[in-house]
Model the fold of this input.
Amino acid sequence: MIKIIFFDDVIPIRINKGMSWGGMMWEDLGQIKKLRQKLGLTQSELAKLSGVSQSMIAKIEKGRVEPSYTVAKRIFIALEDKMKEHHETLIAKDICTQNVISISPEDPIEKAVELMRENAISQLPVIHEGKVVGSVTEGTLVANYEKIKNGTKVREIIEDPFPVVSYNTPLSLIKETLKIYPAVIMVKNGEISGIITKADLLRKRVLKFRY
Done:
């Protein structure tokens, strides 16, 4: 089975991955309008992409007709192709978390623990005077567990900084970077403006396929 997820407010479409796509449910037709609008397509544009008349798409979206299997399949294939295209054009600013939770090199390690716990995150950039100078992750804290409550400063356990990318870096490059690093820092006009983690790749703005 393939599960297509696109944004938070759209119910997943489940389609049989077999050659016939015979597992498509008729209630999924109600998602056509939502998906079309999220992709910024007009009914005419979807009609052109799917080879189905605009009037037929309008009737389907209003629930006035139940299309044949062939017609429904054409529409869903067109939407899936467009979603893949959208996914491939995403850039850093589209998926980043703008509220960058960070820590200073002079803060106690205990503060890093508290920030991670309170915000349900597993890494923190270490920032000094507006510049990323290092990082702290759950792994860092585990390795330095005995130092957490004795006043040790973050600078004493600091690790290398997360990679820095510009706001228009393509998603494909970010994905490859996150295979090596736990996070990526986004900058715009020379200033830190966001952070991207592996979790951000699975959030509402990214199309995800699960087999």
